[in-house]
Amino acid sequence: MNFGTPLIRAIIFGSLLTMMIPSIICSLFILFYFIRFREVLKRLNNHIILALLLINFIQVISEMPLTLIMLRTGFVAIQSPTFCLFCACYLDKFDLNLFDWLFNVCTPVIISTIATMFLIIRILIQKRRIGQREIWRRNRKMVIQLISISIIYMVVWIPNVVCHVIPLIVSSRLPCETATDILHYVQYMPALLCPFLSLIGLPEIRKSLKQTFTRLNHVQPLT
Length: 223
Hints:
The protein has helices spanning 6-36, 44-62, 64-73, 81-85, 94-128, 133-169, 174-186, 189-198, 203-217. The protein is mainly α. It has a single domain (6-216), classed as Rhodopsin 7-helix transmembrane proteins (Rhopdopsin 7-helix transmembrane proteins), CATH 1.20.1070.10. Helix 6 (133-169) packs antiparallel against helix 7. The longest helix is centred in the last third of the chain and has 37 residues, at 133-169. It is globular and about 55 Å long. The mean pLDDT is 77.
């Protein structure tokens, strides 16, 4: 399948744009809540949420529009050698491509996988201890939240790693081409889903968000 055809680009464009708009709205709502109610940021676990949210929000509002323009028009938005150095053009060079794959893709995936497994094992051990059960109840939502984000990250990036390893074992470029065509756009999923997963450990913001939607959907009776 040729992912460079206008039809396929239109499908990917529509899918990403449909997820991008709610993701930005949710991120802005959470950030506004953090700014307005500073006491929420006093909790240590919310510092992690804020850091993840800001990093992914910057990626969504800075990188994704350029990708959407390329999908919509079929051309790169900024066509200059300087801009190309900051984009995926450097992947045409084997040494830079290998460095990027090892340190920016493979290594984070391995670390994230090991850390998530370690966290799950530690949780299971703590739940068996009587004295640790109360700690688990207090931190349950935060742990579920972090594990959910880690699992989304691994689900997206592990296939990318596998598809690049297969050509080293078998003489076929199809897996790598598939990774380039499909997984290049799937990698935006963690950034797009991060605001919604962040709400798991933010009950105050969920309540405020629900109240906001309730007021917006409330129809005033005609007088």
